């Protein structure tokens, strides 16, 4: 049960309750990519997300229209700086200061929770490794006094040398020169370790029925970890705990883990086993239910890890296999759910028809993630970039792939190396909608 392969599998309360939480969950977020030519306006996406229990959005860039669309929504943003910006930030404190001044709102709305400087740099663009921490330090130093904004960078599961069983999780020794100062920075500033685990890629490496159940939070026999005496019932927990073990082994038990990307494609090519609507629904609904249970992981119980789902919409311009374009939880034209997720506050499938699609993005597109194992590389969530990148690499934007059980495969999704990509935002709901939802919630409580 390689940690790289472990992702999610356990079916914590697979049968979702018909009572939909009225308030956002602080631990549930979503990635918003824009590598598409049919996306609705940011304001429409903002309204859509406000009708869900999602409380945070990860962007791959700093599009002013997207950021402003979230003002007044109560949804916090995780902004992204491109891999290509790292050298400039590292060598010039003035450049870092200018970036912060230009992209972080001067007001308190929308709230910016964190900034990710680069995406999967240590996996897809090792030439930037030595410049990563100086860049982070300069961005952090440029923040306003007493700022609560965290500064970090996103990693692929490939940073791990071992993950099976989870208790054996350790970072690759060859990354120590870059990782050691990075971990010291995160500990000193109270910033999280951002990771991209993808159970889907683990399944691709080991497409057996029992592995699928383990990845989809469905009933399974469980997988014991002889090293810790703990038993795992899903891949997601196993992957997260492998990273936790690696951090603990380095002496950084105080560094929090945040899942920057994870998801499951609802369609794919003939050679992409498991990329179906049924499996995507089982994974997302199972994961959301698991997070809401506050069960935590076997290694860190009773505390749900902050998790950003991938992604708001399908991205039809993304390179790579068909599945790379098919991670969207919502339809771009109707704003209806692609499949039931359990995320809607009122139990409905969306907001209905939206406004005309926004113009196609003109900035670089992020590449898709690739697997460390023989399985094909994927890039869910990633944005294409100007310089081609291997799917699944840090340069590729989108969901990062996890190795299948016993393998060392990983994929990256979300941001492409050297390019940034803004995502959509959401706006507040009307008073009438609030009244309807409040009434529906009251009825549920009375039933």
From TrEMBL:
SUPFAM superfamilies reported in the protein's UniProt record: (Trans)glycosidases
Catalytic activity entry: Hydrolysis of (1->3)-beta-D-glucosidic linkages in (1->3)-beta-D-glucans
A molecular function GO annotation: glucan endo-1,3-beta-D-glucosidase activity
Transmembrane segments: none
Keyword Hydrolase: yes
Entry-linked InterPro entries: GH, Glyco_hydro_17, Glyco_hydro_17_plant
Protein name per UniProt: glucan endo-1,3-beta-D-glucosidase
Species this protein is from: Oryza meyeriana var. granulata
């Amino acid at each position: 049960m390689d940690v790289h392969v472990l992702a999610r599998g356990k079916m914590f309360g697979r049968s979702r309750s018909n009572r939909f939480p009225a308030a956002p969950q602080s631990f549930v977020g979503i990635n918003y990519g824009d590598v598409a030519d049919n996306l609705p306006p940011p304001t429409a996406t903002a309204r859509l997300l406000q009708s869900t229990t999602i409380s945070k959005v990860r962007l791959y860039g700093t599009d002013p229209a997207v950021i402003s669309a979230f003002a007044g929504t109560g949804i916090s943003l995780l902004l992204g700086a491109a891999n290509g910006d790292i050298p400039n930030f590292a060598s010039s404190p003035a450049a870092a200061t200018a970036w912060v001044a230009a992209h972080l709102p001067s007001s308190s709305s929308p709230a910016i929770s964190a900034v990710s400087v680069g995406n999967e740099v240590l996996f897809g663009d090792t030439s930037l490794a030595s410049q990563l921490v100086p860049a982070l330090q300069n961005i952090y130093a440029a923040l306003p006094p007493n700022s609560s904004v965290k500064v970090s960078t996103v990693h692929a599961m490939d940073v791990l040398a071992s993950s099976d069983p989870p208790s054996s999780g350790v970072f690759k020794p060859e990354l120590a020169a870059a990782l050691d100062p990075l971990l010291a920075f995160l500990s000193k500033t109270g910033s999280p370790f951002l990771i991209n685990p993808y159970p889907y890629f683990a399944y691709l490496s080991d497409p057996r029925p029992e592995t699928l159940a383990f990845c989809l939070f469905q009933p399974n026999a469980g997988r014991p970890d002889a090293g810790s005496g703990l038993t795992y019932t899903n891949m997601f927990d196993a992957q997260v705990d492998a990273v936790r073990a690696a951090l603990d082994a380095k002496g950084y038990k105080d560094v929090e883990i945040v899942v920057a990307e994870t998801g499951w494609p609802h369609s794919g090519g003939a050679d992409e086993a498991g990329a179906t609507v049924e499996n995507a629904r089982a994974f997302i609904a199972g994961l959301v239910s698991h997070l809401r249970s506050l069960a935590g992981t076997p290694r860190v119980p009773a505390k749900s890890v902050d998790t950003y789902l991938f992604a708001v919409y399908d991205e039809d311009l993304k390179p790579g296999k068909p599945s790379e374009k098919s991670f969207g939880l919502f339809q771009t034209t109707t704003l209806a759910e692609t499949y039931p997720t359990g995320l809607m506050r009122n139990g409905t499938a969306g907001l209905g028809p939206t406004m005309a699609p926004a113009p196609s993005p003109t900035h670089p597109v992020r590449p898709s993630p690739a697997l460390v194992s023989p399985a094909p590389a994927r890039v869910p969530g990633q944005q294409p970039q100007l310089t081609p990148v291997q799917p699944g690499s840090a340069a590729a934007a989108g969901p990062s792939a996890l190795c299948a059980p016993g393998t060392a495969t990983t994929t990256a999704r979300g941001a492409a190396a050297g390019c940034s990509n803004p995502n959509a935002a959401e706006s507040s709901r009307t008073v009438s909608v609030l009244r309807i939802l409040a009434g529906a919630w009251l009825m549920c409580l009375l039933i």
